[in-house]
Each structure stands twice: as C-alpha cells, then as structure tokens.
Design a protein that fits this description.
Dimeric_a/b-barrel, 30% helix, 4-stranded antiparallel sheet, YCII-related domain-containing protein, globular, YCII, 94 residues
C-alpha cells in the first residue's frame, strides 16, 4: 500500500476554493476501492491518503487528477504492512 502526504503550498483560501472538487475526487476513488482512508493533518497544513497496492504509474495518474495539485505538494511512500493491531488486521498485506 501507499501513504500519500499532501502539504499545502498555497494560502488556505485557495485550498478552500478547491475543497469540493477534491472531495469529489476522493469519493470517486473510495468508491472504486483504491483509497483506504484519508484525513486532514492537525494542524491543518495538508492531508493524508492511504492507498491500496497498485502499480505506481497508476497511482501517479490518479494523483495527477486531484484538483489539489494546484495547491499542494505530494510525498508518496510505499509501505508493506506486516503487523497490525487486531482492529486493523485487515490492513496487513494490503
């Protein structure tokens, strides 16, 4: 799986202006089964998306569609989950 960290690079008013299309983009890929979880950083300097295992080129295509490309930078880390707490056991091997 991948963990994608977004860091805002533009003022918050520009981020807010793109929030609705960004959420629609998130919803599309949750529905498609590509995204596992997502949320805001605290303090609100960006966000995080957990993405199921896929070809990295496919992930790059998906990320390029995000409206937040205009207001954020992306750090993508591939993670191989080998242990999880019982409540998160379904994440092992994703």
């Amino acid at each position: 799986m991948y963990i994608v960290f977004l860091t805002y690079t533009r003022p918050m008013e520009e981020v807010e202006a793109l929030l609705e299309p960004h959420v629609a983009w998130l919803n599309r890929y949750f529905t498609a089964g590509a995204f596992i979880s997502a949320g805001r950083k605290d303090p609100r300097t960006g966000g995080m998306i957990m993405v199921k295992e896929m070809d990295r080129k496919q992930l790059d295509i998906i990320l390029a569609e995000d409206p937040f490309q205009q207001v954020a930078s992306y750090e993508v880390t591939k993670v191989n989950i080998t242990r999880s707490a019982n409540k998160f056991a379904a994440l092992t091997g994703i």
